[in-house]
Write a structure and sequence with these properties.
This protein is mainly alpha-helical and 123 residues long. It has one domain: Multidrug-efflux Transporter Regulator, Chain: A, Domain 2 (Orthogonal Bundle). The chain is 64% helix and 5% strand. The chain has six helices and two strands, in the order H-H-H-E-E-H-H-H. Strands 1-2 form a two-stranded antiparallel sheet. Strand 1 and strand 2 form a beta hairpin. The longest helix is centred in the last third of the chain and has 30 residues. It is globular, with a radius of gyration of 16 Å. It starts with a helix and ends with a helix. The relative contact order is 0.12.
Length: 123
């Protein structure tokens, strides 16, 4: 059975690993967006500024991934235009960042608890 558009957009994203830097392909996998979309969003959203190193390679940090997930939610789930999403991010960046961060932490804890539960059940 085929999922409708809303169900495809709200699928669970994987937890963000505990590391300092992520490549563009890792961020694409963690946020379920293509690399070219991330590069475009860098042009459209001034808050999204990955570190660029040798050869202009991009390295994203944890906060960048949270921001990408928030941008994706605003555009794909909430139906904002690029300009509308940009204004949402600039009008209340602290509240958005905190809610996204809290949500990511909760998802990470749930994933860890599920792993512990699985280990207890199998052992």
């Amino acid at each position: 059975m085929r999922k409708n558009k809303k169900e495809r957009l709200t699928h669970e994203l994987p937890p963000i690993p505990d590391k300092l830097y992520f490549t563009i392909s890792e961020v694409g996998d963690l946020c379920a967006v293509k690399a070219y979309v991330l590069r475009y969003w860098e042009q459209e959203f001034p808050q999204l500024k990955p570190v660029k190193r040798r050869g202009n390679r991009r390295y994203y940090q944890y906060r960048d991934i949270l921001l990408v997930r928030q941008i994706k939610k605003l555009l794909y789930e909430d139906g904002f235009t690029i300009e509308g999403a940009r204004s949402q991010l600039t009008s209340k960046p602290a509240a958005i960042s905190q809610s996204v961060k809290s949500n990511a932490v909760v998802k990470k804890i749930i994933a860890e608890l599920e792993t512990v539960l699985h280990n207890l059940q199998s052992g």
